[in-house]
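Exam review. A common question shows you a sequence with its structure tokens and asks you to describe the fold in words. Practice with the pair below. Do the first one on your own.
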Amino acid sequence: MQKKSRPAPKVFHAYARYALRYPWLLSVIIVTIAITQAATIAAPLYLKDFFNLLVQGPAVPGITPRLFGIIGIVAFLWFVEMTARRLFDVAMIYLEGYAMQDIYSGVFKRLMGHSYDFFLSRFAGSLTHKVTKYARGFELLFDSIFMQFVPTFLFVTGAVVVLYIRNHTLGLALALWSACLIAFQIWVSRMRRPIRAARAAAETRVTADLADAVANQSNIALFSARTFESIRFDRTVHRWHEAVMRAWTTDTWIWSAIGLFMLVIEAGMLFGAVYFWQRGLLTLGDFVLIQSYLITAIERLIALNRELRRVYDAYADAGEMVELLAMPYEVQDQPGARPLAVSVGTIALRGVGFYFRPDDPIYHELNLLIAGGEKVALVGPSGAGKSTMTRLILRLYDVKEGAIEIDGQNVAQVTQESLREVIGFVPQEPILFHRTLMENIRYGRRDASDAEVIEAAKKAHCDEFISRFSHGYDTYVGERGIKLSGGERQRVAIARAILKNSPILILDEATSSLDSESEALIQDSLSTLMQGKTALVIAHRLSTIMKMDRIVVIDQGKVVAQGAHDDLLSQGGLYQKLWNIQAGGFIGE
């Protein structure tokens, strides 16, 4: 529980940096708060004189002009207060709007810089929920500080000073009561903090589990798991319910204690005022002054309880995001990293070692050279490390030992953007944006014209199914491309790579989701795509890579054989075994 409370200073520091980007707006906010509270404190002083004059009666010479004068002054103070509040509201709107815009943009850029593994280990729904709560937390915290905490402090301080000048005992009594109530609220808020943090964590878990279930609705239906998932989700909601009930019950007891504070100060101040009035030390106007200050002070100080709860909620919510934002990038550009310059496209793995767990290495002293313009196929059983190699070349992970070089440049010493810009990658399971087909294909080269996008789609045989849609290239594909079949998504990914036209091409099971007819069509497109490029192709269907310049057989993280298709068959070994299992492949040669 204590761990949840640590980010609080970090949260405040992070939010302060965003607010301080707009010093003029911040200055207007502070000045208008000061003016507003000064007017609020001054008005009861004139009202005190107003009622003291009323007690004297209408027979007093010149009393009416004096009463009208006081009314004019009080009206002016109210006008000043109203004007200052409106300026305050405008400044707050603009500052919070600009700052929250900066927060969303800054958090997005920071998150997108994290590694491939970072997102594999976290729910997308949970991350988006945390980002939203982090931005909203700024609004909640900023509102609490400048709409409650600072105005309350200024008003109570001013009221105590005025009452102390008028009567030392009443002034000190209000000061002592205010200090005790504030201390009590801070104490219970800190005591309640782990309870609120537990509630925030439970809410995050509900959101994450709900998003996970919604994203996997097809799996739930196909495996007849609706009852199972309902029971599982019910357990998550039950834990949330327990956390919420603890928080609400605690709040009820706290409000009961605050009610006692209200009773004590109301009765105590009135008893004291009557006592001093009997001795001629206070006037009727002083009762108006005391009651005006007391009502406002009680209202402001009681509101602190709600605001402290909101603040700790905001801290608990934002603290989760602060921890994520503070995490260093697992893969990051080195200081002084330069853009990668590709002339030939040679890829060299030199003594590469890599592991996810030190006791279970995937590669150890792996060496492999792919000449510029060479077409190399990587084959082997599942789990041999084929896809991991492509991710190391793309630097989605950093090697633990050795180096990967492209045209003699260590990929760890160039910028990630430039590295991935020169590599066209078609993954085994392409994921599309919930955008139009035109936008998804154009993602390969964002400045491409519509005609160039359509040409790439035709080469990848996408145009054939796109033309059947009523909205054509303006058809939205759904979240992660769910409205398209697996083969259609893969053809879109191939079209994207064709449009990108990078000097290095990596195909990771690029035709795995295609039927035989579609695969036959795309093989010609891929052959055209690979012309003049360095190509690394991973395929389980060995018939699709028979015409590669070289086939590299990998097993348990090691290169066990390499050569042309016929040579590898004649050598026997693992390649021949894989070939025989596939009975000569799935597509007629």
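Now try the second one, then compare your answer with the model answer below.
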Amino acid sequence: MDLKRRTFLQQSGTLATSFMLTPAMDWSQLFPGTAGPLDELLKNIFAWKDTTIEALLEKQINDPGRRWHGGLANAHDIPNPHSTSSFVVVLASVYTSEASKYHLAPQLEVPLARAVDCLLNVQYEDGSIDLYSTNFHSPPDTAFLINDLCPVYLALRRSGGAGTKETIDQLGKFILRAAKCLTVGGIHTPNHRWVVSSALSRVNEIFPDQQYVDRIDRWLSEGIDIDPDGQYTEQSVAVYSPIVDQMFITLGRLLDRPAFFDLVRRNLDMSLYYIQPGGEVLTDASGRQDSSQIGYVSRYYYAYRYMAVRDNNPVYAAVCALIEREYLDYLTRVGVLPLLLTEDPIFDNPMPQPGLIPENYFKRFLHSGVFRIRRGDVDLSVIEQNPTFLVFKSGLATLQSMRLHAAFYGDKGQFKAEQTELSGEKITLKRSVTHGYFQPFPSELIPGDGDWEKMPREEREMSEVQTLDYEVMIQEAGRKVAVEITISGVDHIPVCIEMNFRSGGDLSGSIIADEQQEDAWFLEEGMGTYQVEEDVIHFGPGKAEHKWSQIRGIWPKPQGDTVYLTGYTPFRHVVELS
């Protein structure tokens, strides 16, 4: 990705990296993305990382005698364990790496010691810490820190730094205290089980104790939440799937259980087909906070690199090359550096010569409810049981979401596919919704006190029953897509098709502004275009039989430029995308 195209992503608010690219630091000149030797990669990472250390040191809290002395605050000026732990990881990474100019630098030893002491100071007696945004006395958030800090502990111990012996001892105390809560504490989400288990395997590597392995096996007794497609329960392609892959690699490696590597392979193989042009990944089917957010394949770097070397897999190596070429700045992040610096000697082995990432396919992931179709730089996703049923990309130009709404009894009229049919490569999504009005509550069941809540609708007979049927047929051919939408069953119902384009592009065509909301238009006739640099999406033809875009019960308008096509039932319209 050239600097101009990366700048577009930054300005449109889509590039979530630790350090933004600037003209003074063009990563493509540092490292061309050939999935090369690890030492060469680290050398170029630290060429940038070293430039951040002085500014980072200035942020350390210097308030002797207070709880957060030696710690760091977040962007909201709230001192917290995660910012402090990240500070420890960064300092320890540059201190222990021969690729850094700060290798064994004495000036880092006191700040590092103070930060570790701060972690101990804010750690609770049960070994837990807080995630200040939501979780308190939190075992899973403690586990996330331990997964980062154990590699740091090992790196410091191996480095032989003259002034870090006491820091290593203090960090060991923090790890052992944390292990107390991990052996008894609970979790919130599916991935937390594997984050906790991975953390315990890391503690067990340093301070062996059978109780840690027993607790891991207790979580594993629930079974692994991976479906036949290779996807985990949360379907969080941009956040938690790569985290789970990393945790399973750790468990497989430290417990000598190679079956975990099979799980990782299955997920990585599936994830190859979630990669969109430029290295983004489809997130709209996620069940977590990355749903419909812009995410990148870069989070999978450790897993793809580890398994590329382990399996001599050229396709995995190609993904690493893509990440190094497009998102090398991601590899400076806290969760990546200590893994590359201190993990298994497998990284001493060379990467295989990169092969090719799939770019021409029609794939259905039945259990995930996702169709992925890719034709070079043209990319189509169809999602079942999701308000966003279609995502379309042509290079940087992105139709982020297509949704369908009807004014039928509030939110009951919003389209979310309940049934899917596949004929060849033609996808048909269907929904049928029935509603009406309610008769008086059965006399023999009336509670007598007039309390409405004691007279549930389920017990009432329904009358004036009406049914609305939706059918959306999607056919891709030759880098073009036809979306035929039919709604029938009840006449005269206002309908709108919502097409949301990513912010930062230019819209043109016979569009008129929606006076009721910003960044919204109606396409009256003909074809519209959305363009980002040389990348273009043509869409239409237009249809604007009314100007009501915010139909009652509609989901909130997404961020970005949104175009509406409108009409009434019986409704039929074919939207073409190219």
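Model answer, second protein: The CA atoms of residues 100 and 163 lie 18 Å apart. The mean pLDDT is 90. Full marks require stating both points clearly.
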